[in-house]
Amino acid sequence: MKILMGWMMAGVAVVVLSAPAFAGNKHVEEAVTHAKAAVEHGKQGHADVALKHAEEALMHANGAQKDMKNGHLDEGVKHLTEAVKHGKMGHADAIAEHAQGAVTHLSEVK
């Protein structure tokens, strides 16, 4: 019985340790959702609403960075930072462009 329990525990450990620690990270999911909204509102010329979504996406992306290290996440944060910067200047098209870059990178975070 002890041998069977040992094998079962070893199997559980392999499954748990082999799964990426950041798979299904809620911060990344929220960042992508808000970045997509920023893209859509930016394309429509709604800089104020796009800015709010870009800021929310950036907040979640920064939260995800506390949990993990990932190059795509870092690039997503750079794009969102630029989107917020341009949003504060009222540049809806630039928000959309940078938010789309963020979506591209954040969607690759696995």
Poorly predicted ranges: 9-22
CATH topology: Four Helix Bundle (Hemerythrin (Met), subunit A)
Please state the overall shape, judged from the principal axes of the Cα atoms.
elongated
**Strand percentage, roughly?**
under 5%
Q: Could you say how many structural domains there are in total?
A: 1
- Which CATH class applies here? Mainly Alpha
Q: Distance between the terminal alpha carbons, to the nearest Å?
A: 38 Å
| Share in helix | over 70%
Structural class: mainly alpha
Number of strands: 0
Number of helices: 5
For CATH, the homologous superfamily is named as: IL-4 antagonist (De novo design) like domain
| Assigned CATH architecture | Up-down Bundle
Query: Tell me about the biggest sheet?
Result: none
- Average per-residue pLDDT, rounded, comes to 86
Tell me the series of helices and strands, N- to C-terminal. Answer: HHHHH
What is the C-alpha radius of gyration, as a whole number of Å? 18 Å
